[in-house]
Amino acid sequence: MTDPWVALEPGADPAERVRALRRAHETFTQAGTVPRPVRSVVAESWRRSARAGVGPDGAAGVELTDGDLLAYRAEHPLARVMPLFRELVGTFAADGEHLLAVCDAHGRLLWVEGHAATRRRADRMNFVPGARWSECAVGTNAPGTAVAVDRPVQVFAAEHFIRRVQRWTCAAAPVHDPRTGRVLGAVDITGGDGLAHPHSLGFVRAVARAAEAQLALLAPPPAEAGPLLSALGRDEAELSVEGRRIRLSRRHSEILVLLSRHPEGLSGEELLCALYAGDSVAPVTLRAELVRLRGLLGAGLLASRPYRLAAGVESDAAVVERRLKTGALTAAAGAYTGPLLPGSQAPAIVRLRERLADALRTALIAQRDPDLLADWAHTPWGEDDLEVWRALAGVRPAAPVRARLAALEAELAVPAGRAPARTCGATQVQRPLA
């Protein structure tokens, strides 16, 4: 096959491929091995689905209905491009007996529109607005897999992990925030086997790019904002300043995170203690890093004696902290796109990362909002969080949630009612740097 993201190569017999995929699916569910002709993207998705505790006879759960659904999608960024989606995809979906679907970054369906009879059939498997179709909830499917791997994907028939979905074929592409590059959700076309064609994959990719272009036009001018440091969920931070986007190395990312939290500045000795474990690093090593960073940022932003940022730099981590302090938990959870510099082992960064994550997850557990807990539990950083899954099972005891909780408790061998031990990989420094 020339393109591994396309479900059927030219000339392939769809019926024969379906039979082969069903045999492969049965082999995987029984023995855990993936034989040919399963594509690598599908094989990897099946393995992720199995690790998440998804069963082949499972079903999607509906999480938002009525007013909650209307309020949530009215505030979602993709609401602004729904007219574009309908213009580009609506007629194609209706005429071809397909569906147009749009999901958020957690795989939750926001809109499902299109051919009436097809919608009625889709309703029977809960392919409806408000239902969660993430990989870790219902296994391999185009919208859920597209947001999981962050690229356009096509899923054909028995490539779907859940058996009741295997009569369908779908193609989906992620849609990104044009300012930050983060995934907002995905646009999807769902229907019959006729969608297993390169054109459908190219079509949703083009629709997603058109949506990103329109979102860029609707976004406020970037010059209105001051310097912004994005460091959540990424090992290398990005600094947006004066219309430029500067991709930082890991060490420069750590330095800017620390300096953004200390407008009064830090001495070279304090930075050494914050960045390096032990006393084996010479001060000249840090000075060299700061010289390179100053050259990268340009004149005027990084001052010395003490080292400080000459202009106030906002960070996404600080936004989450402020929202938590004011009790705006939903807004804080929405702004939290992952652990702070997750690959960093700098002592002060480790403390900051753990403190922020623990504060947010503690607030989520205390508030017991099922949607917020589910959003955390279905992220890469929350999929093994036993305390969160226990809290979620307490407020939403659906079968997939109970199954995942049981699997986690068995895997970690932690008795019910007892929290797993937590460790902290940071040591004290000469003054508080958090």
TrEMBL record:
One of its GO terms (biological process) is regulation of DNA-templated transcription. Pfam families: GAF. InterPro entries: GAF, GAF-like_dom_sf, OmpR/PhoB-type_DNA-bd. One of its GO terms (molecular function) is DNA binding. Keywords: DNA-binding. Residues 243-309 form the OmpR/PhoB-type domain. This is Transcriptional regulator.
